[in-house]
Amino acid sequence: MLIELSQLPQIIQQQILQVKTGETVQFVNNGEIFANVLPVEDDEVFGMLRGKGIDGVAFQNALRDEWQDYATH
After folding, report:
1. Domain of life here (predicted)?
2. Does residue 1 register a pLDDT over 70?
3. Residues 45 and 21 in one domain
4. How far apart are CA 34 and CA 28, in angstroms?
5. Which residue of 11, 35, 49, 54 could cross-link 27, Cys pair, CB 3.0 to 4.6 Å?
6. 70 vs 19, residue with greater confidence
7. Contact 27, 12 (CB under 8 A)
């Protein structure tokens, strides 16, 4: 689901913009929590790099270098 922030009431926009990095956000309806948005751990890796001890940013930069080399030849 995609929710356009600018379409929400101003008070909700202000609350969302005050969420700090690393905070857990809970969504409540009539006093009942129906969803949690948990912070992502900095060292959490997804996909093919998981568990391989490879820095994702370094891997991405290496791929971009390959693309640049390919584009110039």
Report:
1. Bacteria
2. yes
3. no
4. 6
5. 35
6. 19
7. no
Write the CA distances from 20 to 14, 16, 29, 53, 67, integer angstroms: 12, 9, 22, 28, 36
Q: Measure CA 1 to chain center.
A: 15
Whether the Cβ atoms of residue 28 and residue 34 lie closer than 8 Å to each other: yes
Q: Number of folded domains in the chain?
A: 2
Res 52 pLDDT > 80: no
Mark whether 13 and 27 lie in a shared domain.
yes
Instruction: State the amino acid at position 66 in one-letter form.
Output: E
Residue 45 is predicted with a pLDDT of 57
Per-residue pLDDT tens over the stretch 2-48: 888 889 999 988 988 888 877 888 888 899 988 888 776 655 556 77
> Are 33 and 45 in the same domain?
no
